Every structure is written in structure tokens, then in C-alpha cells.
Amino acid sequence: MNDLSLWILDLAQNSYDAHAKDVRIFITEDFIENQWMLEIIDDGDGITEEDLPKVFDPFFSKKQKRFGLGLPLFSDLCKECEGLLTLKSSSKKTILQGIMNLQSVNMLDLGKIEETITALICMNPMVELYYEHKTIRKTSLETKVNTFTLDTKEIRKELKELSIQSFVVLSWIKKYIKNGIEELKEGL
Asked: Which residues pair with 95 in a beta bridge?
């Protein structure tokens, strides 16, 4: 995959496959520590203790129609970028955390995260999605933290009778995310 947003799409889909009703995606770009971090937290079925050590094996999958290559390949990408991937799971909570060095020659661009988040909302309209993107940088005077968030629970409150899957709403969400990320980047 050519950018991180495609990895996020693939990894977040695991949450939906596990029947999650609430998915949280956190991205932190820490320019002080030169660290990029992704966290995906869900309330899905979880991974059994027996299966947890196997999920990084590219030949292990419980999926019937697809292969389970996302986790092992993303783990390899994290390692190639001088980082690591961790996964913790219980019966109703899974936490995936990937960390990479922003300065690594293998580091990928984020890509079109607005399309990824919009696609996740469109494909899984009954699932609540919270997305937070944070940048941390140091200026000559202070440490500056900028944060962008999108929460489908809050959007649904405003929609009333309009579907979150409607073209108008999805177009607005995509533009809202794109503008929010551009504002974060301008702060750099």
C-alpha cells in the first residue's frame, strides 16, 4: 500500500469484522519525538488469548473470504520505520497501536485520510466512529499541540432525519476532514 490511510482502512475494517459498535482512530504526529502513532480501539468481539500470538503470522486467518495479511504486513512496515506494532485484546476491547519514526526513509505519506474515514462511515453506517488527529511541535516559546476531531455521534445529533450515508452528508464529512487536516499541517 502506498500511503498510511490505506493501511488504516484495512486495519479498521478488522474492527467492523469483529462486530464493533464503536471504533476510535487516533493519529498522533509528534515532531518533537519524531514519532508517528496510530491507535485503533474498538468494542468488538476481540481476539482470543489462543489466537492473539498467531495474528502476526501471515498464514493465519479466521476470515473466510479474505486473507489476514493486514496485521503482519503493517507490523513489518512499523519495524521498517524503526517502530513497532502492539495489539491487546479482551472479549470486548481491542487496542492496536503502531508507532513509526517520522524521519525513517521508509515512512509513508498519510495519503487521503478524508477518503478513508468517509469510506469507513459509508460502509459501516450503524457503527459510531471517532477520529482524532493530533500534531505536537515545539516552537521557540512553547510546545504546541493541535487537534482535529470528528465524531459520528455528534454528527448524528445534528442530522435528525437525514441519513449519515446521504451524499450531502458524506461530502460534507470528507471536506470537513480535509480542511481540518490542512489546518493541522499549516500549524507546522
From this structure: 41, 88
User: Phi and psi at residue 86, in whole multiples of 5°?
Assistant: -125, 155
DSSP 3: S
In three-state form (DSSP H/G/I as H, E/B as E, the rest C), the secondary structure along 28-73 is: EEECCCCEEEEEEEECCCCCCCCCHHHCCCCCCCCCCCCCCCHHHH
Side chain identity, residue 95: I
The type of residue at 79 is K
Q: How far apart are CA 149 and CA 95, in angstroms?
A: 19
**What single DSSP character describes residue 133?**
E
pLDDT tens for each residue of the chain, 188 residues long: 789 999 999 999 999 989 999 999 999 999 999 999 999 999 999 888 888 888 888 777 776 666 667 898 999 999 999 999 999 998 889 999 999 999 999 999 999 999 999 999 999 999 999 999 999 999 888 999 999 999 999 999 999 888 999 999 999 999 999 999 999 987 66
Question: Hey, where are the domains in the chain?
Answer: 4-186
What is the architecture of the domain spanning 4-186? 2-Layer Sandwich (3.30)
CA angle 165, 166, 168 (to 5 degrees): 130
Phi, psi (deg, nearest 5) at residue 14 = -60, -35
Q: Which amino acid is at 170?
A: L
